[in-house]
Amino acid sequence: xxxxxxxxxxQAAALAMAAYRAAAGDGxxxxxxxxxxxxxVPRDAANGDFTTTFALAASKALRQPPRTIAQALxxxxxxxxxxxxxxxxxxxxxxxxxxxxxxxxxxxxxxxNEGADYGRSDALKGQKIMVxxxxxxxxxxxxxxxxxxxxxxxxLASVLSACGAEVSREFYVNDAGHQIDKFARxxxxxxxxxxxxxxxxxxxxxxxxxxxxxxxxxxxxxxxxGFPGETSEGDWMAAMAExxxxxxxxxxKEDLRRYKIEYxxxxxxxxxxxxxxxxxxxxxxxxxxxxxEKDGALWLKTAAIMRENLLKAGKKEKDIEKLDLKDDVLRRxxxxxxxxxxxxxxxxxxxxxxxxxxxxNIWGADHHGHVARLKGAxxxxxxxxxxxxxIVLMQLVKLLRDGELVKMSKRTGKAISxxxxxxxxxxxAARWFFNAKPDTQMDFDLGLAVREDxxxxxxxxxxxxxxxxxxxxxxxxxxxAAVPAAGAVDAALLAAPEERALVKAxxxxxxxxHLDARDFDPSRINRYLTALAGxxxxxxxxxxxxxxxxxxxxxxxxxxxxxxxxxxICLDIIGVSAPEKM
Length: 582
Fold this sequence. Notes:
Layout: H1 4-25, E1 39-40, E2 50-52, H2 54-62, H3 66-75, E3 84-90, E4 94-99, H4 101-114, E5 128-132, H5 144-162, E6 166-173, H6 178-196, H7 211-224, H8 233-258, E7 265-268, H9 269-275, H10 277-287, E8 291-294, E9 297-300, H11 302-312, H12 317-321, E10 328-331, H13 339-353, E11 358-364, H14 368-380, H15 385-388, E12 389-394, E13 397-401, E14 404-405, H16 418-424, H17 427-434, E15 442-445, H18 446-449, H19 457-479, H20 497-519, H21 523-542, H22 550-574
Helix pairs in contact: 1-3, 2-3, 4-20, 5-17, 5-20, 6-7, 6-8, 7-8, 10-13, 11-14, 19-21, 19-22, 20-21, 20-22, 21-22
C-alpha cells in the first residue's frame, strides 16, 4: 500500500543520485564509489520537508567541501514532475527539499483510494505470528494487570495483521499444577466449613482467601446436594477444581468479550500433560545432554545454556560470573513436572507442532527473570528461542481517583478487577488508557477517563472524528455540498501552514504503523492519534470551511474528511469506537 513519506524519501534520494551522476558526467564533480543518498525528515519544518546529507557523507570520497558538492547537485537537479517544488542548500551542506502540489494531491488520493486499507502493508506477509496475552490463572477474577496486557496484546495483534502477518491471538489456561491444586483445596476447605461450621475444618494457610472461593464452594454444594459420604477427598478435590474452572473460565471469556477481546485459541496446560508432551520435552532435553538428576529430581542445565548464549552475545566471562546463574528443576522428586517444564513444552508446541514463525508473549515485569531461561531452553531444543520468541514486559498499573491511590472497589470492597473497572469506566476509555507504552509504569486516573473535555485524550480524539462527521452532515443538509473526489480538488489551494501540517500528518500514518510493528509498541498509535487530532483542531480553527469560495471549501472539506477516515482507521486498530455524534 501507499506510504507517501517513504515515497518522498525514495524520490529525494533518487533525485540526489541522478544529480550526482549528471555532475560527475560533465566533470563538475569527480567520480567515486558513492551509492546512496541518505534522506531524513528535519525536526524543524523551517529546514524543509526532507533533507539529504549526501554532500556531507560523500565529502571525503569526493575530496570536495560539502557545500561545493551540494551546489553541484542543485545545479544538476531536475525537479520537473517530482513531488518537490524546490530545493536549497543549508548549513554545512544539507540539501533541503520542499514538497509541492503533486505530493499533497497524492496523499489525499491514497487515503481515498485505499479506504479502510489505508496504511496497511505487506511488510510481514508470509509470517505466521502468535500473540499470547493475558493468560491469567483461572483461579479468580482478572485484575488490573490483565486489563493492561489485554489491550496491549490485542492491539499489537491488530497492528501485525495490518502489516500483512497471519496473526493468532492465544490465551494459555493454567489448568494444571500447583495453582489448580491450591484452588481445589481452597474450595474444598470452604465447602467443609459451610457444611460443618467455620471452626470444624482448618483453611489452608496458602489457600485463596477471596469471597469468590466461598461462592464456588456454595455453588458446588448446591449442585451436588452436599457431600455424599462414600466419595474420597481426592475425588472431591478433582471435582471441585473442574467445577471451579467451569464457572471461572466462562466469566473470564465474558469479561474479555466485554473488553472487546476475542481469542482464536484457548490453549489448556492440562493438554500438554495429558498428551505426554511435557515428559517428551524433558526427554528431548535429556537426550541433548542438557539435564542431570540430583536428589531424585530432574534438573535443566539452565546456567550452562544461558552462559553459552551470553558468550555468543559478546558478554565477558567476568560479567557472566556476577549474574549468579542457577539451574532449574524440570521434574520434582515426587514425579510431578514443574510449571517451567510445562512452559518449555508449550512453546515447543507453538514452534514445532503448530509452526509459528514468531511468537510474542505479553508478560508482567515480574516475569523478567523467566525470559532468558525460557529462550535458552528453546535454544537447547534447537528451536531458536533467542531469535523467534519475543517477550514484551509491561510495568505495573496504579489506579488513581482525584490523585489518591485506589486499591479497593467501592462496589465490592475488594481489589479492583477488570469487571469492576468496566463498571466504572467506558470500555473505549479503558482500552485507550491501557494502550500505553508497556515499559513504563502507568497511572490510570479514573476521573480523567470519564471527563468530557480536551484534557481527556480519548475524548479529544473522538471529538475530532465527531466534529468532522457533523460538519459533513451539516454542509450536505444546508448547502447540498458533498465531499468531493480527490481528483476534483486543487491541492495547491491547501497552502496554509495548518493545512499542510494536516496533510503531512495523514501521510505519516503508514510509517507509524510500520514502526508500531517493528518495535512491538502499539502505544505509538495513541500518540499519533493525539497529534493528528491536534493538527485537525488547529486546521479547523484557522481555516474556515463553511462560507468559503466553492473551490476552497471543496479542498478543505476533502482534507477534513480524509482526516476523519484516518482517525477511524486508527481507532479501529486500538479497538475503540469512532462516534459520529458527541
